[in-house]
Structures are given as C-alpha cells and as structure tokens.
Design a protein that fits this description.
alpha/beta, about 100 residues, about 20% strand
Length: about 100
C-alpha cells in the first residue's frame, strides 16, 4: 500500500505540500514537472533533492524508498505529460492505493 496525495494546481499549494512533507519525515517524496522545477523547489524551500523526483523519472523511486509518501505538484500537468493527452476534468482521490 502506498499513500498518494494528488492536488491539482489551483495556486498556492506547493508551500503547504512541502510543509506537510517536512512534517511527514524523510520518506515523503515530491513529484514535479521537470528538472528546473526540482531545482527551484530545492533552493526556494530547502528540500533535499533526494526527496524530489521528476515525473518522467518515476522509476528512480524504486529501491530508494521502501514505501514513499508521494506528493504530486501540478498533478493535472504531470498526468497530461505522462499520458500524452489533455485532461479536461479530473477527480482526485486521497488515500491508499496499491
């Protein structure tokens, strides 16, 4: 079981997610759109790079954390990038997923 928290972009949630991650501990991982965003968040929020993963590099999570708590920044854009198509509507489930 893994915890998945996906928050669509509506403005101002990155800071709240990072604060929640820091409270969660070192097994929390933030997924971002690209390497530039990863560097920005690393410098702006002092979040270790080992806790940030770029969406296209999600395979790098395997083995790094046994059961990571995954936080997704800009979830709609990341899903569009991974699926290769535009998402018109999106419902978000917060909870445990296999």
């Amino acid at each position: 079981m893994r915890h998945l928290i996906a928050l669509p972009r509506r403005g101002g949630k990155t800071h709240a997610m990072i604060e929640a991650m820091k409270a969660q501990g070192s097994d929390a991982v933030l997924m971002v759109m690209n390497q530039r965003e990863a560097q920005r968040i690393h410098h702006e929020y002092d979040l270790p790079l080992k806790q940030i993963v770029v969406a296209k590099d999600i395979e790098k999570l395997r083995g790094r954390f046994p059961r990571p708590r995954l936080y997704i920044d800009n979830a709609e854009l990341i899903l569009e990038q991974l699926l290769g198509e535009q998402i018109d509507t999106m419902s978000v489930t917060v909870g445990k997923v296999n």
